[in-house]
Amino acid sequence: MRWLVFLAMASLAACQPSEQASDRAETALEFPLPDRPVSKVTSNQFSNEDVRDSRGEAQKVMDLANIADGNTVADIGAGEGYYTVRLAARVGETGRVLAQDIDREALERLGSRVERERLDNVSIKLGQPDDPQLPVDSFDRIFLVHMYHEVTEPYAFLWRLWPALAQGGQVIVVDTDRPTDQHGIPPLLLVCEFEAVGFRLTEFVEKPDIRGYFARFEPDGTRRAPEEIEACSTGKLSRARAPNKPSTS
Fold it and tell me: Which among 100, 121, 126, 209 would be 20 to 30 A from 110, CA to CA?
């Protein structure tokens, strides 16, 4: 079996509320703290895979994201591999899937699954809470499915994710419209945090059958320098309007 396991040495600090600045990694200190709580990391088994498939979740998300044969895709927060194995089937032998997580034990279980199911087009990588540790200029799509609300350093994380996109690459977010300490993130806050780094929202779709919404982001010009990034204020955002399904450009 020729699947690759990249186990970078990384801190696996637990996801604590981001207000605790003393707990921040040194590599995150040049970025602002998010003005919001953060959900604690729970089981990587979001729900039973058969139940998710009965709703057609992965197929609908991959269709919306225009995943095709030969694509190179990153599955961030891959956990037990629900999306990883389905992305591997969709991109085919000429495509590649990189499954990333900050949970070493989850990656070990996923590695066993990849080997058992003979997924030769899947690689595995250990990430850091403030850095997905992705290779530069590599991905047509980067998936963040029901995990972004657990990112303790969103500005550092998105800033370091940016260079991993290939020309025309996009970030796909699936999440739920609820408070960030209740395993979701309001769409306004999501869009604000991405825009603060230099991304733009190109599509937003509410999809109850995927347990939330689908959002597509692309780089918008130049990535902002860390000192230019301003944290989004949840107080101001609460008085604004939610995104209204912009068209893909």
Answer: 209
